[in-house]
Amino acid sequence: MPDLAGHSPSATSRVTCLDGLRGVAACTVVAFHFFYAFAPASFIDRQRVGIGLFDTPLAVLWNGYFAVAVFFALSGFVLAASAPKSTREAPLMIGLRYFRLGVPALVSSILAWAWLTSFPEAARDVQAITASPWFRWTYQAPIPPLSQAIWEGAVGVFVNGTTRFNNPLWTMQAEFFGSVLIYGSYAVLRGHARPWAMALGLVGFTAFGLFPLAAFSGGALVYELRHRLRDHALAGSLIGLAGLILGATFPGHAAGPGTLAYAQSWLGTGGLREIGALLVIVAILITPPVRRFFEAPPLQRLGELSFPIYLVHVPLIVAPAAYVFAALAPLSPLALAGLFALTCLGTLALGALFLVAVERPLLAVLKAVRTRGRARLAAL
Fold first, then answer.
1. What is the pLDDT of residue 13?
2. At what angle do helices 333-354 and 90-118 cross, to 10 degrees?
3. Is the entire prediction scored with pTM above 0.90?
4. pLDDT (tens digit per residue) in 8-27
């Protein structure tokens, strides 16, 4: 996150509460992928009836779809804050954004190749046991060569929007297109035109089903209107609850007879998911107790690890965790919980290594290039 706001949305220091939100969202994605792989029944039931945990705001704890919507909205907020100061800066900023996304994606793709090569049958064995359709997004033996992992991580995910080495990398294409959208728009728009353009993007992209770009536009809109936000605990709580009901409810409820069942069938679907993510962000910004919760040191640490966590967790799930699951199957609920805890610990450890070895050095290099590039452009 860039330097924006601290204890109030209109301040000029860092918005640390949103760092914490990003960390929580990363953990949600880990839970989503783990249980979709090893206990998929509730995740693949697309015609649920009645009311269960998946139909409540508690689903925010494992709803990976909603977590990704939060990521996109937060990216829109961040990109609006770091937008080019002139049209001449836009190519530089967009180029740096590609490397910001591409280098970690490349390293994680190589890491995924290494894990899959070490446990080539694990994903297939677990799929045979659990019948989880999620594994169709993972390469199974024979594993393609390292050269393909390098290509898909550095280029393929941006061109095709998918890879079966490390399937969360599908979001890299959306992240890059969203970056072009925000940086390009901000390079040519000034002042009051920006919030109007972002509002139009939110509505227009939603109407055309381009939900990631709608989330980017909405996040930038929240950034533009942040100075109008005021602390209000009650209003923030209600806005946050509305956001969770609209967006964090797991999609797939049956559209049965009656208005309530029909309305339930829309909760958590594309469009409402992104609106819900934006409402949650606004709620955190204006609700002091919630803001302080997300500013707590443990969540700040998670926020710093959020991108590494996102990049490394699936290779751990589809390879070593899958190997253990297949070897010990059937697992009791307690044993599955233990495997989940071990996977989370492994993800944190590998994510911390990724942070030190890849993330921080890359950010330092990109910062130096950006500073030097801006100085040269200013001298022209």
1. 55
2. 130
3. yes
4. 344 345 789 999 999 999 99
Domain count, the chain: 1
Kindly state whether residue 11 falls inside one of the protein's structural domains: no
Please give the radius of gyration of the chain, using alpha carbons only, rounded to the nearest integer.
21
Model pLDDT, residue 380: 80
Rounded distance, CA 202 to CA 198, Å? 6
Cβ(337)–Cβ(298) under 8 Å?
no
The count of C-alpha atoms lying within 13 angstroms of the C-alpha of 178, restricted to the half-sphere facing its C-beta, is 31
**Parent domain of 317:** 16-379
Phi-psi region of 235 (alpha: psi -120 to 50; beta: other; left: phi over 0): alpha
Tokens of 61: 């704890």
Q: Which residues contact 54 (CB under 8 A, 6 or more apart)?
A: 42, 48, 249, 250, 252
Residue 146 falls within a domain, yes or no? yes
**Does 4 map to a domain?**
no
User: Exposed, middle or buried by CB within 10 Å (0-12, 13-18, 19+), for 364?
Assistant: exposed
Give one DSSP letter per residue of 133-180, joined into a string.
GGGGGS--SSPPPHHHHHHIIIIIHHHHS--SSSGGGGHHHHHHHHHH
The answer to whether the beta carbons of residues 72 and 219 sit under 8 Å apart is yes
Cβ neighbours of residue 290 closer than 8 Å, sequence gap 6 or more: 17, 236, 237, 240, 283, 284
Tell me which residues of the chain have a pLDDT lower than 50: 1-12
CB atoms within 10 A of CB 31: 18
Give pLDDT, residue 125: 96
